[in-house]
Amino acid sequence: MAEMIEQLVGAQPKIEKVVEGMWATEGPAFSRAGHLLFSDIPARRIMKWDGAAVTAFRTDSNRANGLTFDHLGRLLACEAGRVTRTEHNGLITVLADQFEGKGLNIPNDLVCAIDGSIYFSDLLFRNPPPNPSRTDFSALYQITPQGKLRVASRDCVRPNGMALTANQQKLYLADSGPCTIWVYDIAADGALKNGHVFADMSSDKSGVPDGLKTDEDGNVWVAGPGGIWVFNARGTRLGIIGLPDGPTNCCWGGNFRDLYVTCGSCVYRISTHVNGTRTY
């Protein structure tokens, strides 16, 4: 690895397998209560790892994928056709399931901003049959603090993972179609502007840019072909942290210097030398 990436993870990165035996892991989110949640999509479960054991947090997840928490510690989830919030009493509130009277398709990943806005990606089914009851496009949406759903961007072919910068002034979005990362400025009302391609992640290895996170130094960590790709704030690739399986998503946890990565049937933990961005 290049010297620059060594400054972030060391010459020989410490990578530990902390969970195994799942079906297909995705959407990790670390709770302020000190445990990790992640989706096991085919099993239709949200799982909980407390540092010692793995248990089921929710056994009927409606094929939940991306997870995060809001600023009150409530779980937000992208599920089949909808975005939900799990209240402190365990009840599930549907935050969005249709746009302009038509159903959503495959909500994939999401992030909660400091003003209460929730951004989420929704992917159109591949080669979908005509279905006038559902939207016919992929998009990045914003649920405003007032609860209104609006399209934030339709730039990406297949919008996927996303993350905010530490100062909440920019949003990064993976496009798993052409394998690029986009970046947007965030306006005062939460609207996105000045969108452009930040980095190209084309590779001869299998995989696409998927989930991503940022750190307090402005770097962007992306689950992509062959491992975790790391870019600086200018879009220069610093290196790739190789993993034995194709990573799908990542999150900061523990002391926020540990990066948890979902890969196939496992979850890995990568020790770093940088502070990850805290978004909740």
Write the layout of secondary structure elements.
Elements: H1 3-9, E1 15-19, E2 25-30, E3 36-40, E4 45-49, E5 54-58, E6 67-69, E7 75-79, E8 82-86, E9 92-96, E10 98-99, E11 102-103, E12 106-112, E13 118-123, E14 139-143, E15 149-153, E16 159-164, E17 170-175, E18 180-186, E19 192-200, E20 212-214, E21 220-224, E22 227-231, E23 237-242, E24 247-253, E25 258-263, E26 266-271
Antiparallel strand pairs: 1-26, 2-3, 3-4, 4-5, 6-7, 7-8, 8-9, 10-11, 12-13, 13-14, 14-15, 16-17, 17-18, 18-19, 20-21, 21-22, 22-23, 24-25, 25-26
Question: What would you say this structure looks like, in words?
Answer:
- This protein has 280 residues and is mainly β.
- It has a single domain (3-271), classed as Neuraminidase.
- The protein is built from 1 helix and 26 strands.
- The radius of gyration is 17 Å and the shape is globular.
- The mean pLDDT is 96.
Summarize the structure.
This protein has about 280 residues and is mostly beta strands. The protein has one domain (about 5-270): Neuraminidase, CATH 2.120.10.30. It contains 1 helix and 26 strands.
CATH superfamily: TolB, C-terminal domain
Query: Remind me, CATH topology?
Result: Neuraminidase
The spatial strand order of the largest sheet comes to 1-26-25-24
Q: What percent of the residues sit in helical stretches (DSSP H or I)?
A: under 10%
Q: Per CATH, which architecture?
A: 6 Propeller
* N- to C-terminal distance: 32 Å
Shape: globular
Mean pLDDT: 96
